[in-house]
Amino acid sequence: MTVTLEFLGTGGAHSEDLGSSSAKICLPNHQSMLIDFGPDTFFAVKERKLQFDAIFLTHAHLDHVGGLERLFFNIAFKEQRSIKLFIPVGLVTRLHQIFGSAGSQVAEGGMNFWDSFQLIPVSDAFYFGGYRFNVFPVRHHFPGEAFGLALPGCFVYTGDTRPIPEQLVAHAGRGELIFHDATTATNPAHSALNDLKREYALHNVLERLILYHFDSAAERQFAEGQGWRTARLGVIYQFGYNQGFAGSAESTDEQKAAEELSANVH
Ligand SMILES: [Zn+2]
Ligand SMILES: [Zn+2]
């Protein structure tokens, strides 16, 4: 009985080699939810023939939602099913402006963007597959525009953000693994490595960070060279009873991390 999380892409908006940042969460009852759906996510899902029941969107930047139009066409003309779309309530208007407000979604008419999705606006928390997920605001561009996701006792996924020590105090107090935005150069939108080191130095946080959203594989490698742990494709993080690691290759370190985490998460 485990919850798992696996990345489908780990890059930022400028990345050409890491794919759009997105992750798939699988619950013990086999229901699954993606976090974000950027331009590359559609192809990652397709290539691996992944099934999923829902998507949670962290924010409306196109590197996180840009694959939704292609998904709409796929659902509308091929799959003809409906996918749950959990969206922080303040972002609904923005997403409707981007995807839903065209005069007609298809030239022949008769179809709405939202026909293919079950829109579920969320504020502080929502239920999916019998689990309660927490949603919290992060620091990324204008206030109220970006959100993180937490499954208590398992993980925190920050989405794009500057450091958020106050939110990690609130949501990462039970040994959760923390998937965190990172970049190498200090900037106003994301978390530079030195920012992370400074902001989280006093908390039991640094050793639980798994960094993603780098601009390139070279940038990620630079971070790894400094001792940071980073997200990689093919690694499956497991949480819950019988916790362990079922990832691929490179993963002595990750396995160790999962084993360490298993001491804290039940
Ligand atoms: Zn981004
Ligand atoms: Zn962003």
From TrEMBL:
Any Pfam family: Anti-Pycsar_Apyc1
Entry GO MF terms: 3'-tRNA processing endoribonuclease activity; metal ion binding
InterPro entries referenced in this protein's UniProt entry, alphabetically: Metallo-B-lactamas (IPR001279), RibonucZ/Hydroxyglut_hydro (IPR036866)
Top-rank taxon: Bacteria
Residue ranges of every copy of the Metallo-beta-lactamase domain listed in the record: 19-213
PANTHER family listed in its UniProt record: RIBONUCLEASE Z (PTHR46018:SF7), ZINC PHOSPHODIESTERASE ELAC PROTEIN 1 (PTHR46018)
This protein's name: Beta-lactamase domain-containing protein
